[in-house]
Write a structure and sequence with these properties.
Layout (H helix, E strand, L loop, with lengths): L1 H15 L5 H4 E7 L1 H4 L6 E8 L3 E4 L5 E7 L6 E4 L12 E4 L4 E7 L6 H8 L2 E8 L10 E4 L2 E3 L1 E3 L3 E3 L8 E4 L2 E4 L2 E5 L2 E4 L5 E8 L4 E4 L5 E7 L2 E6 L12 E4 L4 E6 H4 L9 E11 L13 E4 L3 E6 L17
Parallel strand pairs: 16-25
Antiparallel strand pairs: 1-2, 2-7, 3-6, 3-9, 4-5, 4-8, 8-11, 8-12, 9-10, 13-14, 13-24, 15-17, 17-22, 18-21, 19-20, 19-23, 23-24, 23-25
């Protein structure tokens, strides 16, 4: 009987043990990418979870949620990862010593899309939360013991500066200037392994004109989780045909291209955010057919492509360059 009472007292003591405050275990923060290497990448940040004591943390950027509040707005937009986990994955836990940090780079467009992304890019205050509403046995982000765990960590707010309107540019001598054509790639979200169609529209700002636009006229510069690469078709060596000069007006004309044909094998095999910049090269003026077609090199604004599903890969920070200290 005494033994049973002792067990009951221990259970009561455990139940009454106070839970740890978040700041007693760890803190989370977002730092602008240019503070790391001086490179202006406005959507890219460094996510850090720093230990305040000896602690176990969950290392998974998909647990981040964002509250985006433009200046003067009464309602904030909420952004979340399209495949946020529902419980802790034991393979993604890290043991940290006091002062030690786990870091991963993130792109805010992996979380924000549509109207939320437009609100962000118009200039906004961003508040980030890492984790879940409350700690449970299956949902926590930092713990020093089973009873000393927190479900979420709140980062100090950061200011996202409004972006300038992004337009198509063209090379004129040694400078890039606004172009008479707009080259616009549609942003998209796909499931890993699904067919990817790059839908790019070309339209004129004014009266427009004719242009010899073929699938091989396009190329796409891609910056992704595994590095940079280019998607393009091999150039066609035949002479231009008069009937293939197309009228480009304000309503525009759209080409849909299969990424499996243009891009390297397994190009979009990793889940994450890919930044895709469309390019258009027009070489043929059509003088042999009595035409004065539009020519030039045109570069459209970069757009986000989100790939979800499949194996989630951590986006570790690149090693510092020699001389970075």
């Amino acid at each position: 009987m005494r033994h049973a009472s002792g067990i009951a007292l221990v259970l009561v003591a455990l139940a009454a043990a106070p839970r740890a405050r978040a700041d007693e275990l760890a803190e989370v923060s977002l730092a602008a990418w240019d503070a790391r290497d001086g490179t202006a990448r406005p959507h890219r940040y460094v996510l850090s979870v720093r230990a305040a004591t000896s602690v176990e943390v969950v290392a998974d950027r998909r647990l981040l949620t964002l509250e985006v509040r433009p200046e003067g707005a009464r309602v904030a937009a909420r952004c979340a990862h399209p495949r946020a986990p529902t419980a802790v994955d034991a393979s993604r836990t890290r043991a940290l010593a006091p002062g030690e940090a786990w870091q991963e780079w993130i792109d805010l467009r992996e979380y924000c899309a549509g109207r939320a992304l437009a609100a962000l890019e118009g200039g906004a205050e961003v508040r980030a939360t890492y984790g879940w509403r409350r700690a449970t046995a299956r949902r926590w982000v930092a713990r020093s013991a089973p009873r000393q765990a927190v479900g979420s960590l709140a980062a100090p707010p950061v200011a996202f500066a409004a972006l300038d309107a992004r337009t198509t540019t063209m090379r004129q001598g040694d400078e890039w200037v606004p172009a008479p054509l707009e080259v616009a790639l549609a942003p998209s979200t796909i499931t890993r392994g699904a067919a990817l169609v790059l839908s790019v529209t070309v339209r004129a700002h004014d009266r427009g004109g004719r242009a010899y636009v073929r699938p091989e006229s396009f190329s796409f510069r891609v910056r992704g989780p595994a590095g940079d690469f280019t998607c393009r078709l091999a150039p066609w060596g035949g002479a231009p045909v008069a009937d293939l000069y197309q009228r480009i007006g304000r309503r525009g004309w759209t080409e849909r291209l299969d990424a499996r044909v243009l891009c390297p094998p397994r190009a979009f095999d990793r889940a994450g955010l890919y930044e895709v910049t469309p390019k258009l090269r027009l070489d043929h003026r059509g003088a042999e057919w009595g035409l004065a077609a539009i020519t030039g090199r045109f570069v459209g604004p970069a757009v986000p492509l989100r790939v979800v599903g499949g194996a989630h890969v951590e986006q570790a920070l690149p090693a510092p360059e020699p001389g970075d200290g």
